[in-house]
Amino acid sequence: MSAESGGTGRPSTGNDWAARELARPAVESAPLLLGALLTRRDAEGAVTVRITEVEAYEGARDPGSHAYRGPTPRTRPMFEAAGHVYVYRSYGIHLCLNLVCGHRGAAAGCLVRAGEVVEGEDLARRRRAAVRRPGTVEPRSRDLARGPGNLGLALGVRLEDSGRRVDEPPFALHPPAVPVARDLIVRGPRVGLALPGGAPAFDWRFSIAADPTVSRYTAHRSHRDADAE
């Protein structure tokens, strides 16, 4: 069975690839998403990012997950089948994009934390400019989708996208042109989570080594306080 055909005798599509790779546990899907091309298209146009940083969340067994205590109206998309999108608002401002993984009910998923804008940079810049505070500098290309809030803004993600599928409009997800080599994948603790979800044991943040679009790691404040004591 070839990787190109998927055993069907025809070339593999982005939909085939997304369905297959997201059906795995999130901690297995996450590194496979590195280098993948994620597109969102709407009336303004299309923006595509090459994914460079993701975090895995494993549902009920993961104290860092929104699904840890079961479904709520907001988190219900996480309990859908692999390939659904879960969007939430962070700090009342930023919209963050997650891709549901695993079997229906697993409530696992990957937070897309950062990417390189490879299509639609002008549109991404306009979206960033619309919310930029007066007196602040225009972001460099590498910073347009650096961090989950910036990535959501660059793509034009909306709350109503939650519950949609990443392999159906307005989204598309395609495999990396060249898979990221294993020795170029960095693994470490997730960003900004309180204990226990932010503990080193949950080393479920994956990124491409030395890629300038990867966001800076910051521990939860309680971690820094504990380290100082």
TrEMBL record:
Transmembrane segments: none annotated. It comes from the Bacteria. One of its GO terms (biological process) is base-excision repair. Pfam families: Pur_DNA_glyco. One of its GO terms (molecular function) is DNA binding. The keyword Hydrolase applies. Keywords: DNA damage, DNA repair, Glycosidase, Hydrolase. Its EC number is 3.2.2.-. InterPro entries: Formyl_transferase-like_C_sf (IPR011034), MPG (IPR003180), MPG_sf (IPR036995). SUPFAM superfamilies: FMT C-terminal domain-like. NCBIfam families: 3mg, PRK00802.1-3. Belongs to the DNA glycosylase MPG family. HAMAP family: 3MGH (MF_00527). PANTHER family: DNA-3-METHYLADENINE GLYCOSYLASE (PTHR10429:SF0). This is Putative 3-methyladenine DNA glycosylase.
